[in-house]
Structure formats: structure tokens, C-alpha cells
Inverse folding.
């Protein structure tokens, strides 16, 4: 019995990349970070990076793009070394999942930062004209990763609906005459539908076509904003279908931190989605156990099981909002519960709830290693149970 | 005619950076505190420049609407990270560990800052704070919010209520006792943020035991306000979730319609919810336009 493990998307950026990007001088601890992790992860030629950073420390000017590629190598090795089977680079070369997409598209203007949660903020833009793709914006990154990855790659691409719902609308909807006019919801829905479908057709789909041409086999459409508006789920589904219809690739969708009940029945129409990777651990107990009562965060998974096109479930087993490191046994029990519910372990993949970019590399690494270890424990338990039958 | 801005105000880009640096151990708490003070001074200055009637501290240290109260209470703690309504901002939902949570002490100056003039203070309504905890709103009102109110000197307390207007089958009678339990101190306003208030208004929202009622006029039709509404109406005319800057003349014109068409005598122009859903640069401009609208309305009436 084999259960596939994969990452979701982002990882924290190393301090030497963050500081260089911000134009902040590096200090000895940054260089040591590169040396220590390079050695720990077995990054080929990491000494070259250390030398480059040391020179930069002495007043040089490191090539930022080159440093981004080094960060990609490190992140790849971090995931591969943890034992994750399908990997990417923690989005090291992107600014952020939303900002990267809108910065490489026409029709958007920046509007400053807005709180995501606690002290975490994100840059938010407004759509001010019909959006279009300036240039395929994941090609360089993917081509580079193909040349250095040892494991299979899955490319995260921010989805059309999330870009739409995370943007201010200064173009599609009415801008005046709204005060006291009542909740013109149908007007808002029409505007959002037009916006999301324009993005799907003119920004996302050309990107996907370009990646497939380069050899992409698995593309993950990230839609953390999918359930933002309960009455817009059909727009999310429509824009997903518009993005992938007829393209030859394994497409998955990442959903997180939502009331997942809201997605049903809308996602019954997402026939092009072969896998949903979904965050559950955030809502779950930390106690061991494989009964439904032990696993409150996973109550909704039977609804994914019952989808008519039988997608795989990417089971989020790591809470990415806390430094608490899930034990292998806790991961095992979450998986075993899911396999009981699904009845078919082949429809379960194992992953974190979401990208781990808000955790330090130390914490992320420990969590991921335990996820892999817990997956092995689950595989053993399933094999033992299978042999006993 | 008045104007003011309850709720959480956005942090400046510098404060965002400072708190981010603090989380990554790249700066000190003192450096963050100093930036908070600079942000607060700037916010006060903008409100004074705009001619707002009550000053607010913008809740600059509040990470969400509930956090300082949860941290100051026995029997309440932070729960799962939860989406705030239909925004891309998340909060840690209140979680109760006892049947009767109690505020342990009062909110200090870090969370309710002293201000150089008449001020308003924003707190969650008892209904909002009780959501998902299993604790009745009345218990929350008596044991958490009332002690908090007793420790606050303010000209107006705005109890912000983001959930009630979106809760199916909720009735305004559920709010009556919890709100009554908070009476006896500063004037109270109940503000229903980011929602259509038609149904609560039909149920008698205006009869609740508070001094003022707040309504989002991006969700509520003007005609849903009962004619002759006789409390102070906090009219949510600035859309706190939109980057589009309001036209001060349009705001003033709407204020006139409230008076002429709905016979509302006491109006305060406010945002329809926390301004933290736009950046500080945009929020500042919205405050200035709020002030201009008030001035235009007052001048037109004169």
C-alpha cells in the first residue's frame, strides 16, 4: 500500500534572499544560514552561494535572480530531503501568490497592503481595466526547476476566482450610485462572473497552455479564496472549468480555511479536477485516534468521497498556522481515518493544510519529516490490516 | 450631523513592516511600540483635519475584533483561524473553556489609548463575542463586556456586530437583554456592519436599549429605515471594503435624503465597517472625504 505525499506551495524565504530583495545588508548569521542548510540538505555547490553571499557582505552586489534560483534549489532539497515525493520550490522566485500573478498581468493597479491575519498582510490590487496576460509568468521558474529537481514536480498556479475575489473591483461593477440603493447582489454577481471568466480565459489558461507545452504533468490551481462568497461558488467552478477545459494535464485544486460544506453541491460540476488538496488539520484535535469523534476536523471528507467524478483527496494533515509539530502517530491516525471513510486508499494523497511560508524552515522541515514518517506508519497499518483480511 | 470612524483602522506600511520584523525577531518590541505611537499620532491628526466629532485610536494593536478581550479573560481563548465574513481577512474565533468566562482586570492603554479630545471606543457586541463559544450573549455581556465598559471613559461605545445581520433566524429580541446588561455607563451604539439591515429594522432594531444604531448603506436600502427613526443613526456611507474613493457630494446628498425622505434627525456619517479592509493610504483619504461630506451637509442645512 503506497500513499503519495506532496507539498502545497509556499515555504518561507531564507533570510539571505529576503534581505537581498529588500536591499538590506546581510550579516554573518545570514551567510551561516546558507552554509548550515546547504550542508544539512546536501545542496550541490552550496559553497558557491556562501562565497557569493560573503562577497556581498563585503560590499558586492549579488544577482537577485541568481539568489532566487539558489533559494529554489534549497527549497527543493528541503522538500526532497524530508521525503516528499511530489515537490516544487516553495515559490521562492515569486513575490507572493497573488502579487506575482497581478504584477505580470495587464489591467491591475496596486492599492497597498491589507491584513490577512494577525500580523500577516498581503498586497492588494484593484482591477482597473480588462485583464490580460503580459507574458507567461511561471515558465522560467518551471524550466529551471525541471533542470534541478530529483523528484516529480507539481506547479502551483493561483486560480482565476481567487485573483478576482482578492482584488478590488474598479472596472467591472458600478462605482457610483451605490449608497442606500440596497444590496444590488445580482449586479455584483454579474460583475464578478465577468471578471473571473476574463481572468480564466485571458490570464490563467494561456499560462497553463504554456506550462503544458514545457512538459508540465501536474498543475495545482490554488483557490484559497474559493469559498469567500457562499453564493459565488458557481462562479469559482465556472472559472476553473474555463481555465482547464480540454487541456491535457493532471489538474488539482487547493482549498483551505473555509467552511467546506459550502462547496457542495457546486463542485459536483468540476469534472476537470482530478484531485482536491484541502486543509483540515487546522480544525482537528491533536489527540490520537481514528474514530470520527477523534477527528472532528475531517468530518466533511465524506462529501469529497461522494463526488460523482471520484477525485483524489489531498488530505491536509499539518496545521500550518502553528509551530506545534504533529507527531507521526497523529499524522497516521488522520490518514487512517480518511482511508476508512473513503474505503479506497488510492484516493488519498497526503499533504500539509496549505503552504508553510509562515513557519521557519526548522519547523517546516520537522513537520514535513513527521508527515512522511506518519504516512509510512499509515501504510504499514493498512498493509497489516490488508494482510489480516 | 456628526461624523466619526469606529472599528479597526489599517496600520501604516511602516507598522506592518515593524510587526512583521518583530515576528521574525528582526526588531524590538520597543521599536514596534514607537511606530504604533507614530501611527496613532497620524490617525489623530487625520481625524482632526477631517473635523470628525469623536476621535478613535483605531485599535491599532488589536489583531482582530476579539483578541485583547480573549487574552484578558479567564475562560476565553483563541480558537480556529476563521474567515471574517466574505473578506480575505481571518480572525481567531473565540473559544470558551468555562461556562462563565470572566474578564480578568480591564483593557489597558495599549488597547484603549488615551486621546486628546472626545472619543469613541469600539468593542464587539455581546452577540458577536458569544458566537461559536456556546456561552449565552447575556453571560458574555455581564461577565466580560460590562467589566470592560466599567473601566473605559468614553463619549460613545460602539458595539460592532458583524454576524447578526447574516445569521438566519436571528431575532432582535435575542439582543435585548445582553444590551440592557451593558447600560448605565457611557452611551452605547450597536453597529451592524457589512450587511443588509432590512430584516433587523423590521424586527425593531431601533427599539433596542442603546442610544444609537449603525447601518451599512451599501447593504441596506434607504427606504428600509423607518420614517422618523428617533435615535442617533450611524449611517455607514463609506464602503470600507472598496478601494473606490467616495464622492463627498454624493455622501452629503445621501445624508440630506435621510433627513428629507426618512425624517431622521440625528445622523452620524461613518464607514460601514472596519476600515482595515483598505490600506492606510486609502483609509486616510476616505476619512477626509467623510469630513468633507459632514461639512457640506452642515453648510447646506445652514
Amino acid at each position: 500500500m503506497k500513499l503519495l505525499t506532496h507539498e502545497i506551495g509556499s515555504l518561507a524565504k531564507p533570510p539571505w534572499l529576503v534581505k537581498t530583495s529588500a536591499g538590506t545588508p546581510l550579516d554573518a548569521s545570514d551567510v551561516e544560514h546558507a552554509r548550515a542548510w546547504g550542508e544539512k540538505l546536501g545542496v550541490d555547490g552550496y559553497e558557491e552561494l556562501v562565497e557569493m553571499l560573503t562577497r556581498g557582505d563585503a560590499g558586492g552586489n549579488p544577482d537577485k535572480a541568481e539568489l532566487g534560483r539558489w533559494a529554489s534549489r534549497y527549497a527543493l532539497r528541503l522538500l526532497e530531503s524530508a521525503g516528499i515525493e511530489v515537490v516544487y520550490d516553495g515559490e521562492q522566485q515569486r513575490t507572493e501568490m497573488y502579487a506575482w500573478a497581478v504584477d505580470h498581468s495587464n489591467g491591475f493597479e496596486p492599492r497597498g497592503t491589507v491584513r490577512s491575519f494577525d500580523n500577516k498582510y498581503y498586497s492588494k490590487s484593484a482591477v482597473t481595466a480588462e485583464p490580460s496576460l503580459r507574458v507567461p509568468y511561471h515558465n522560467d521558474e518551471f524550466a529551471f526547476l525541471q533542470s534541478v529537481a530529483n523528484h516529480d514536480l507539481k506547479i502551483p498556479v493561483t486560480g482565476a476566482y481567487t485573483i478576482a475575489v482578492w482584488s478590488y473591483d474598479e472596472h467591472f461593477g458600478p462605482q457610483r450610485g451605490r449608497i442606500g440603493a440596497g444590496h444590488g447582489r445580482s449586479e455584483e454577481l454579474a460583475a464578478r462572473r465577468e471578471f473571473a471568466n476574463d481572468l480564466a480565459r485571458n490570464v490563467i489558461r494561456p499560462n497553463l497552455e504554456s506550462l503544458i507545452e514545457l512538459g508540465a504533468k501536474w498543475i495545482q490551481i490554488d483557490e484559497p479564496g474559493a469559498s469567500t462568497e457562499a453564493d459565488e461558488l458557481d462562479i469559482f467552478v465556472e472559472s476553473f472549468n474555463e481555465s482547464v477545459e480540454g487541456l491535457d494535464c493532471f489538474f488539482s485544486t487547493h482549498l483551505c480555511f473555509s467552511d467546506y460544506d459550502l462547496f457542495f453541491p457546486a463542485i459536483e460540476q468540476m469534472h476537470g479536477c482530478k484531485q482536491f488538496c484541502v486543509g483540515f488539520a487546522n480544525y482537528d484535535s491533536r489527540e490520537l485516534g481514528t474514530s470520527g469523534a477523534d477527528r472532528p476536523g475531517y468530518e466533511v471528507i465524506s462529501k469529497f468521497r461522494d463526488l460523482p467524478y471520484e477525485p483524489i483527496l489531498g488530505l491536509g494533515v499539518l496545521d500550518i498556522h502553528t509551530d506545534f509539530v504533529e507527531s507521526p502517530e497523529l499524522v497516521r491516525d488522520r490518514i487512517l481515518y480518511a482511508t476508512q471513510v473513503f474505503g479506497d486508499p488510492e484516493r488519498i494523497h497526503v499533504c500539509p493544510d496549505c503552504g508553510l511560508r509562515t513557519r521557519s524552515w526548522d519547523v517546516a522541515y520537522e513537520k514535513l519529516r513527521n508527515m512522511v514518517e506518519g504516512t509510512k506508519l499509515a501504510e504499514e497499518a493498512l498493509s497489516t490490516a490488508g494482510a489480516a483480511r | 450631523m456628526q461624523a466619526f470612524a469606529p472599528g479597526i483602522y489599517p496600520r501604516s506600511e511602516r507598522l506592518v513592516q515593524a510587526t512583521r520584523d518583530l515576528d521574525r525577531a528582526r526588531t524590538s518590541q520597543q521599536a514596534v511600540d514607537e511606530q504604533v505611537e507614530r501611527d496613532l499620532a497620524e490617525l489623530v491628526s487625520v481625524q482632526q483635519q477631517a473635523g470628525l466629532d469623536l476621535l478613535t485610536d483605531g485599535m491599532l494593536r488589536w489583531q482582530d475584533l476579539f483578541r485583547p478581550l480573549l487574552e484578558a479573560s479567564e475562560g476565553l481563548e483563541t480558537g480556529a483561524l476563521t474567515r471574517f465574513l466574505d473578506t480575505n481577512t481571518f480572525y481567531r474565533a473565540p473559544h470558551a473553556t468555562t461556562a462563565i468566562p470572566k474578564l480578568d482586570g480591564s483593557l489597558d492603554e495599549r488597547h484603549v489609548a488615551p486621546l486628546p479630545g472626545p472619543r469613541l471606543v469600539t468593542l464587539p457586541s455581546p452577540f458577536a463575542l458569544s458566537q461559536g463559544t456556546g456561552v449565552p450573549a447575556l453571560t458574555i455581556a455581564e461577565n466580560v463586556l460590562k467589566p470592560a465598559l466599567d473601566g473605559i471613559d468614553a463619549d460613545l461605545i460602539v458595539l460592532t456586530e458583524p454576524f447578526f445581520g447574516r445569521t438566519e433566524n436571528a431575532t432582535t429580541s435575542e439582543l435585548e437583554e445582553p444590551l440592557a446588561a451593558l447600560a448605565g455607563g457611557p452611551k452605547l451604539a450597536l453597529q451592524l456592519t457589512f450587511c443588509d439591515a432590512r430584516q433587523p429594522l423590521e424586527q425593531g432594531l431601533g427599539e433596542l436599549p442603546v442610544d444609537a444604531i449603525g447601518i451599512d448603506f451599501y447593504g441596506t436600502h434607504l427606504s428600509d429605515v423607518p420614517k422618523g427613526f428617533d435615535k442617533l443613526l450611524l449611517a455607514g456611507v463609506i464602503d470600507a471594503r472598496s478601494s473606490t474613493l467616495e464622492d463627498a457630494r454624493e455622501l452629503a446628498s445621501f445624508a440630506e435624503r435621510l433627513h428629507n425622505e426618512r425624517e431622521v434627525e440625528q445622523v452620524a456619517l461613518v464607514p460601514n465597517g472596519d476600515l482595515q479592509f483598505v490600506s492606510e493610504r486609502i483609509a486616510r483619504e476616505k476619512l477626509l472625504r467623510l469630513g468633507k461630506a459632514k461639512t457640506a451637509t452642515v453648510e447646506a442645512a445652514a
